[in-house]
């Protein structure tokens, strides 16, 4: 996967403004190898002055980038993707170390990032607007997609590269400038590497900036900056709510993707083995540390015993350890604080309230054994709150109506329902209050044509191509 030299490499996540790297405004802080607990690099908090300079520079550089022809922008994005591919071996090892994910997760993340760049490069040459029906004789009506301007992008630590690229690639493709603040836990894969690759690919100076730092120091200064045309945030509901409230007062466009306590529903006619396999993937992938992880398993009583047995049997076989140095299925939880949040704050109080540990429930440092809890009720913390850890809580219900009621109890992003009848699944899915529901599966899709609407605005232009008459009073008669 990686050479000894690359796994020991020390990185520095610097501030990147106007095509140049510079020291942050604060002292250096360590970036940890999450499994080994040792420093793999360093970063610092970009200052308010650096944030202001990054946004000001982006505003100055953006118009020329927007005027650059689509084919040239396409070539730059493809070169960006090629730079990431060129460093594949190194970046796979880096993502494993910095996020604590497995090699499979790292390969997925890098692959998503490269594909997002290539897809955005293709899309920008396919659609620049539309020809609309004329509203009067001799008129041509055109609708153009024009860039928003400067995008302030704040991304989390769980998929630092691909979640940044989800906005960065289409944002750049459609002629915007982007100012990125990566998460302080993952500023290298989520920031430094992207700045290096963008610079090597020929992204013009000032069009892309990277501001490593924490939320209160750097993040707050960025999303409060008056020079942004769009604030794009992925992260916690609490921070996202504060950003949305500010954007509303300031009249700023905002896009957020926040956490959700997602439901995984198993109806009485479900294929139990299929559901159990998907349950592990949906709840335990990357130690359950994603916003689309299944956090509440709502299971019909008639299949509950068989489902629980199938899930527990699979969980017992999982290997937990250092994903860079060992052959494992799960790596470490990202930080001790995160582990305490779900173990001490959710799992232990739920056990005290009557939940039973079918397997797991222990940890060695940050290495948390995947856990199955049974006898979970809707009043327990593990049911009410987003887990963000490797835990499968199982709640038993007596009817489809009860399952639907519990599925809709809490805010969600993505839900799943398992049933032997797809049409029955569709009927159930239509009643779930969520934008994304999967039947007999669990998967999230990003990208596509919706990116055009997210990172551009519509400008209407009417062209009169033949003489037209106006009222006499307008002609001076």
Describe the structure.
The structure is a single chain. The protein contains 16 helices and 22 strands. It is α/β, with parallel strands linked by helices. The protein has 2 domains: 255 residues, Aldehyde Dehydrogenase, Chain A, domain 1 (3-Layer(aba) Sandwich), CATH 3.40.605.10; 178 residues, Aldehyde Dehydrogenase, Chain A, domain 2 (3-Layer(aba) Sandwich). β11, α9 and β12 form a beta-alpha-beta unit. 47% of the residues are buried.
Task: Fill in the keyword field for this structure.
Aldehyde Dehydrogenase, Chain A, domain 2; seven-stranded mixed β-sheet; 22 strands; alpha/beta; Aldehyde Dehydrogenase, Chain A, domain 1; about 475 residues; 2 domains; globular; five-stranded parallel β-sheet; 16 helices
What's the number of extended β-strand segments?
22
Mean pLDDT: 92
The best one-word shape is globular
Q: Per DSSP, what share of the residues sits in E-state strands of 2 or more residues? A: 15-25%
What is the second-level CATH architecture of the largest domain?
3-Layer(aba) Sandwich
* The CATH class of the largest domain: Alpha Beta
Report the total helices: 16
Poorly predicted ranges: 1-8
Measured distance between first and last alpha carbons: 83 Å
What does the radius of gyration come to? 25 Å
Proportion in helices: 40-55%
Strand adjacency order, main sheet: 15-18-19-14-13-20-21
Name of the CATH homologous superfamily of the largest domain:
Aldehyde Dehydrogenase, Chain A, domain 1
Number of domains: 2
Summarize the main sheet. Answer: 7 strands, mixed
| CATH third-tier fold name of the largest domain | Aldehyde Dehydrogenase, Chain A, domain 1
The structural class is alpha/beta
